[in-house]
């Protein structure tokens, strides 16, 4: 493997979160019955004319600025001609030689190393319809077509071939998704097709400057699928080259069940699409003041927010990176800190117990039953000594399950921490009397015996005894 270098470039399609489609006023909303979100324009019926949705252009500029792209002063739409059942017009309105944005970049971090990945271009286009297959795309006996998605606005973000491993491709896609979500132009839900990714991958001898023959992998429905598909394809290509074979430029699909890529068709070239300027859409002259207005309206982006969490909140870089990975999680964290001014304590609970419960329940922070002010109130009870750390975990799980406040749960279940020294002393004396063997072990230098005795006291108090007092009283009596 070290004799070869992997070269990967990604083409990411992002559906924009506009009310209507890119060239007509049909709703761009996801879902509903097949072929109900359509009109003569997006169905390509004779005699209709497209009109550009200005909101789409604004969103494209917004995303491009967040990705450090240069915004074109002059841009136009083109017709990309090809026949496929999901294309009602037999051409797709896209952009070819004069896209709205070019020459951007984003930074990724893999194995502690930061790398800058170039973005070749960002352009606007209309989405196609959706083919609904009966089974696998390569084996289906028939397919149905739903045109609800036809005409939904897309931006396509094409990276430079700067990625050198499946892991880097995964991090790039994750970072790109976060930036786009922060701008608010798309929800990037892969399960709904709002974010889709095609990958171009090739291998070449280590140290070579020339690119090898690439293949394009389509139909990947998750970040993990992308990483697994690329890993397999790199190994496949190396094996072909090692056996004296030749890589064929083609489009391949990822079969999740078999864990392999499968050949679909030979790879098309740009000239195969016979691009031509769309005669129904006038070219666009982009006003610079409009671009500057959009730039000023951009929110704080992930990298800036991460740096602020380190400098302002004193968080470790790792915590800051995890918390800013999605805008929703970062907003939740900051709402907690606004109500409870111990950022590290909040970070520990959000990244630990809260993340565990969200994952176990297959949900995310937007559907979290524990509101930020509720988590803050529980941490205040913990700080005051009203509940112990162990009780806090029990309370937290009940909060997640029921949505109730911590104080309500503590009262209902009688979980107030015992901090009365006299009450704890009585339990400690009883435990010592019943566990003389452990007492002798401790006095003989076996420190582990103290942990056992602490556990017995906590058990006898049903976890409500103040742990610090328990340790203090046990040590006093045993010494």
Automatic annotation (TrEMBL):
- State one Pfam family annotation: GatB_N
Record family assignment: Belongs to the GatB/GatE family. GatB subfamily.
Q: Which Gene3D superfamilies match?
A: 1.10.10.410, GatB domain, N-terminal subdomain
Q: What does the subunit section of this Swiss-Prot or TrEMBL entry state?
A: Heterotrimer of A, B and C subunits.
Q: Which UniProt keywords apply?
A: ATP-binding, Ligase, Nucleotide-binding, Protein biosynthesis
**Protein name in the entry:** Aspartyl/glutamyl-tRNA(Asn/Gln) amidotransferase subunit B
Job of this protein? Allows the formation of correctly charged Asn-tRNA(Asn) or Gln-tRNA(Gln) through the transamidation of misacylated Asp-tRNA(Asn) or Glu-tRNA(Gln) in organisms which lack either or both of asparaginyl-tRNA or glutaminyl-tRNA synthetases. The reaction takes place in the presence of glutamine and ATP through an activated phospho-Asp-tRNA(Asn) or phospho-Glu-tRNA(Gln).
Q: Which EC class is this protein assigned?
A: ligase
Please state the Enzyme Commission number of this protein: 6.3.5.-
Q: InterPro entries of this UniProt entry?
A: Asn/Gln-tRNA_amidoTrfase_suB/E (IPR017959), Asn/Gln-tRNA_Trfase_suB/E_cat (IPR006075), Asn/Gln_amidotransferase (IPR018027), Asn/Gln_tRNA_amidoTrase-B-like (IPR003789), GatB (IPR004413), GatB_C_1 (IPR042114), GatB_Yqey_C_2 (IPR023168), Gln-tRNA_amidoTrfase_suB_CS (IPR017958)
Q: Which GO terms describe its molecular function?
A: ATP binding; glutaminyl-tRNA synthase (glutamine-hydrolyzing) activity
Name the catalysed reactions: L-glutamyl-tRNA(Gln) + L-glutamine + ATP + H2O = L-glutaminyl-tRNA(Gln) + L-glutamate + ADP + phosphate + H(+); L-aspartyl-tRNA(Asn) + L-glutamine + ATP + H2O = L-asparaginyl-tRNA(Asn) + L-glutamate + ADP + phosphate + 2 H(+)
Q: Tell me the GO BP annotations in alphabetical order.
A: glutaminyl-tRNAGln biosynthesis via transamidation; translation
Domain spans labelled Asn/Gln amidotransferase: 331-478
